[in-house]
Predict the structure.
Amino acid sequence: ETVKNFWACSSACRSDPFCMAPLIALFIALTMMFAAPARNEGAETHRLVIITGKAGTIGDISRDDLRQIYTARISRLGGYRISPVILGSREPAERYFLEELLGIAEIDFTQLWIGAVFRGEVGAPPHLARAPADACLYVATHRNAIGFVEASDLSGDVKAITVDGRRYDAPEYPLKWSAR
């Protein structure tokens, strides 16, 4: 009986555009939902590579150690003083690093380091590299400097270190993101 009434109502409403509006909206929504591409389909995968100089003592680093280095909680790793390098704010790698790995905004990162330097907790803030090539050059020429660039910006003068035991080109590498 209910099904019969639905179809009777639907046929009666076909001439009334206001009556059909909810059905049309439902049809469009379902069509878009099933026809829309997957969220990351066609998206390019970027990989954030942690780098050090070829003579650097770091071969592997954990994400937790990276967070602690870049939030001024530790300044030594394996007995060596670490000199962090950060990219300029216009670099997608820098935004990913701050937002996803550290979980802080750029202004909070800056204030954190100003406070740490002012309180004498660290000797200097991270070296600011204006471009990925500058980050690679600084890391290559300063022992125990550590930085990050996108995989496409790697230079032959630096060593890509593993993160949590995974190489940057491994499928399960933890520091990657998709962008259109």
Q: What stands out?
A: The helical segments are 2-13, 17-35, 63-70, 92-102, 106-118, 132-141. DSSP finds six helices and nine strands in the chain. The radius of gyration is 26 Å.
